[in-house]
Design brief:
By secondary structure, this protein is an alpha/beta fold. The chain has helices at 130-143, 159-170, 182-190, 206-213, 227-234, 266-270, 287-299, 316-323, and strands at 4-11, 24-31, 38-47, 76-83, 93-96, 103-107, 112-113, 150-153, 174-179, 196-199, 218-223, 237-245, 274-277, 307-311, 331-335. It has two domains: 4-126 and 305-335, Quinone Oxidoreductase, Chain A, domain 1, CATH 3.90.180.10; 130-281, Rossmann fold (3-Layer(aba) Sandwich). The structure holds NADP nicotinamide-adenine-dinucleotide phosphate.
Amino acid sequence: MSPLPSRQVVLARHIPGLPSPEDFRVEPVDVPDPKEGELRVRTHYVSVDPGTLSRLGGVASYAPPLAPGDVIHSAAVGEVLESRHASFAVGDLVLGAWGWRAHAVVGGRGLRKVEPGPEPLSAELGVLGIPGLTAYFGILELGQPKAGETVLVSSAAGAVGSIAGQLAKRRGARVVGTAGGPAKCRWLVEELGFDVAVDYRAEPDLEAALRRAAPEGYGVFLDNVGGTTLDAALACMAQRGRVVVSGLVADYGVPAKQRAGLKNTPYLITHRLRMEGFVVLDYAERFPQARAELRQWLADGTLRHREHVVEGLDAAPAAFAGLFRGENFGRALVRVLKTPGPPSR
Ligand SMILES: NC(=O)c1ccc[n+]([C@@H]2O[C@H](COP(=O)([O-])OP(=O)(O)OC[C@H]3O[C@@H](n4cnc5c(N)ncnc54)[C@H](OP(=O)(O)O)[C@@H]3O)[C@@H](O)[C@H]2O)c1
């Protein structure tokens, strides 16, 4: 064994607002031999996550900020090339958080072996990964929709939103989603079974459109967007509605003082609303059971998902910037290895 020439994507400079590809640098790197207790992995896919932006501006969030020169953090799946760890063997498929690297040396901590299954390996980063689990706990644990209630999901054609809406339907709810553009809205209704999709970009008055879609009011709102979407939805909730704050993608690139802010907070009182944010990692102990259920629903065809895959690490920065313009249609991923996976996956 010897150092392996590879490539990685690093932060070129802190990003004060919305990202552009120039904020990143793709650079060569020699990946060292694994030491005792470590493995060397080859990446098949890495994830592209809007929440990462909150770590790229040089400001502390719930995870520490990255510095220029740091490798971009993300979830990743790949195969073990060399192992000096008793629990992993050469050829094992593993999921970890080694970020935007074509190869990496990792320890066993936080690494999970991916058992062969009918789904493609990429699903481990999407419907069976953090986005699917965020939808699962956001809807089923925090939102707890009841049959007959109407559930609103924002960024509904995205990785979290598309699963969240389907899980709410499983609970017997009527489901309304917001998404940008007619193609995404058509997909939500025609393929995922949403009752109504609101194209927020085409609506001059989002609050009025949300009210038209559910005059009865929303029992649950799973919000991925924040900003003016959250404010409009607050005014359209039913009595005792639950607002579950999953993400605030419209606010991520906006300095705090310039954010839209909430004007409809009086509805929290008049409509006895509950509003709660969450970090899905807090449910980590329950991930295996949740993943087993999601896998079962995929297998029986009652849960559908969509991936937006770009090719190669060079494409990752533009894919990341594209998240904030709605360019991804489904879970945004980078395929790092040209022909990923052994035939079993
Ligand atoms: N709480 C947690 O533990 C947790 C875990 C994972 C993810 N999240 C959050 O979940 C949210 C969704 O993540 P994801 O990975 O599923 O991303 P995604 O929804 O697949 O992709 C982002 C989407 O956001 C929409 N968007 C971007 N800018 C917008 C704006 N200004 N206004 C309205 N919509 C906008 C775009 O869709 P359109 O074309 O529809 O505009 C874009 O496709 C993010 O906020 C993320 O941070 C939270």
